[in-house]
């Protein structure tokens, strides 16, 4: 039985996707581009529905606000009709209408947003706070009408020029205070909307040169900022999960949240490890020279895997291209980690991905999300089949079997000194190393992709 309910269709004052109805599951034989071939939200996998396993979310910023075909070398190419209104609140309300029409037709249970995605910031703090409060009311109405929930929101503390030198790590205290006011407003919006998580992404929390940077002070200030946000969030009734999203660079050259291991170390050093988990993005892992699965496993090993941003990078491009995820073998390894960690609790799969510059039809938003959802659904099927078959887990268990009993188990318990280990080693050379059998194990994934039933 699914704990998440299907979205109720929504259309505002006008329909922005009038020729498209609810996206249905039609199975692998379907050639309808506006239908799911694999993702069947009610299908049971490992005791839960696909909807409950994957907890899909749409990124408000990429799909409805800013990522309209722009890139570092040119302006937008996609003309969003909902953004044509001249009045800021009218434009924001129309954008919300378009978002909830799209998301309800797609059938996702969640969405995510930055504050300035849902409303223009305005020319003063008071204007910003008023607009966000009004749009929180509008979003609450749309959530009530559709049943779609807020997976997480966050404050955009990187786009405005005031944050050119950082937000929580800015050398000017007045900027730090302004960033805190923004986070305060976002936490209030989160509680009003019943958000499951709250995310911090330090887009400019870092430095470009040590010649003008006090890195120790900046990181201490970042920790103080996170503590203040945690305390305020809990004081107003936020019961969800605080998440930090690692990224190694871009826009800042050296970011303090470089990768999962760096963030975990920072949280432990600052006494925050019990309050925060990680939101892992695939393209950020690529920029850190890691695989998506590596970052997920690092977070899981520390009991800090909270949620994911689903996308992929381009191996020929050195920046955050945020393409929709379609590499199923790569996703299988990611989902294996997620299932091995017990699945999501408050987190989910947020499509932090955008259309390509040349994809200028609104229908392309559906094609992109359908493809990503089908890819994750197939990865879920294959990962579950591999776990049920058990060969991967059994191979890992046997590979480390020498630590399960005897002297190996004593070593794991911390009972053997270095002198004792030397005496053990004097008995003779270790046996010939066993094969890691990487090729064989990779073949198991390909074999499961080819043989696991689609439905």
What is the CATH topology of the largest domain?
A: TIM Barrel
Spatial ordering of strands, largest sheet: 5-6-7-8-10-12-13-14
Task: Provide the CATH superfamily of the largest domain.
Answer: Divalent-metal-dependent TIM barrel enzymes
Helices and strands, in order, run as EEEEHEHHEHHEHEEHEEHEHHEHEHHHHH
Helix content: 40-55%
Total helical segments: 16
Gap between N and C termini = 18 Å
Number of domains: 2
Name the CATH class of the largest domain: Alpha Beta
Radius of gyration: 24 Å
Number of separate strands: 14
State the shape: globular
Beta-strand content bin:
5-15%
Average pLDDT reading:
95
- Indicate the structural class: alpha/beta
How would a crystallographer describe the biggest sheet? 8 strands, parallel, barrel
CATH architecture of the largest domain: Alpha-Beta Barrel
- Low-confidence region ranges: none
Please provide a written account of the structure:
Helix 5 (125-146) packs parallel to helix 6 (173-193) and helix 6 packs parallel to helix 7 (215-235). The chain has an eight-stranded parallel barrel with strand order 5-6-7-8-10-12-13-14, surrounded by four helices. A two-stranded parallel sheet has the order 1-2. 42% of the residues are buried. The radius of gyration is 24 Å and the shape is globular. It folds into two domains: 24-389, TIM Barrel, CATH 3.20.20; 405-451, no CATH class. Helix content is 44%, strand content 11%. The protein is built from 16 helices and 14 strands. With 455 residues, it is α/β, with parallel strands linked by helices.
């Amino acid at each position: 039985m699914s704990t998440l309910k299907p979205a109720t269709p929504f259309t505002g004052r006008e329909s922005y996707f009038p020729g498209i109805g609810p996206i249905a599951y039609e199975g692998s034989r379907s050639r309808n581009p506006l239908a799911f071939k694999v993702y069947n939200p009610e299908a049971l996998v490992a005791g839960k529905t696909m909807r409950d396993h994957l907890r899909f979310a749409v990124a408000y910023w990429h799909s409805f606000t800013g990522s309209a075909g722009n890139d570092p070398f040119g302006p937008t190419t996609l003309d969003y009709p909902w953004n044509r209104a001249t009045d800021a609140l009218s434009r924001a309300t129309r954008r919300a209408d378009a978002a909830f029409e799209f998301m309800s037709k797609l059938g996702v249970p969640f969405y995510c947003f930055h504050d300035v995605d849902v409303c223009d910031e305005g020319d003063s703090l008071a204007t910003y706070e008023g607009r966000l409060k009004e749009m929180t009311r509008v979003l609450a109405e749309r959530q009530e009408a559709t049943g779609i929930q807020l997976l997480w929101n966050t404050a955009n503390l990187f786009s405005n020029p005031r944050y050119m030198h950082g937000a929580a790590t800015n050398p000017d205290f007045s900027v730090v205070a302004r960033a805190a006011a923004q986070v305060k407003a976002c936490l209030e919006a989160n509680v009003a909307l019943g958000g499951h998580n709250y995310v911090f992404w330090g887009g400019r929390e870092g430095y470009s040169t040590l010649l003008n940077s006090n890195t120790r002070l900046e990181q201490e200030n970042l920790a103080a900022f996170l503590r203040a946000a945690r305390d305020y969030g809990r004081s107003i009734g936020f019961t969800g999960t605080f998440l930090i999203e690692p990224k190694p660079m871009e826009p800042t050259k050296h970011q303090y949240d470089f990768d999962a291991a760096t963030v975990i170390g920072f949280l432990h050093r600052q006494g925050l490890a019990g309050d925060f988990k990680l939101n892992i993005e695939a393209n950020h892992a690529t920029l850190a020279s890691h695989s998506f699965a590596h970052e997920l496993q690092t977070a899981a090993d520390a009991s800090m895997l909270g949620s994911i941003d689903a996308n992929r990078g381009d191996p020929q491009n050195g920046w955050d291209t945020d393409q929709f995820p379609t590499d199923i073998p790569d996703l299988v390894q990611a989902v294996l980690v997620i299932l091995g960690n017990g699945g999501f609790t408050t987190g989910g799969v947020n499509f932090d991905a955008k259309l390509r510059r040349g994809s200028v039809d609104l229908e392309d938003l559906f094609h992109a999300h359908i493809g990503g959802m089908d890819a994750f659904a197939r990865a879920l099927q294959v990962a579950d089949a591999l776990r049920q078959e058990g060969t991967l887990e059994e191979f890992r268990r046997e590979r480390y079997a020498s630590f399960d009993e005897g002297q190996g188990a004593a070593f794991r318990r911390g009972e053997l000194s270095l002198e004792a280990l030397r005496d053990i080693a004097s008995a003779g050379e270790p046996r010939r190393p066993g094969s890691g059998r990487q090729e064989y194990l990779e073949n198991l994934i390909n074999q499961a992709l080819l043989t696991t039933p689609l439905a």
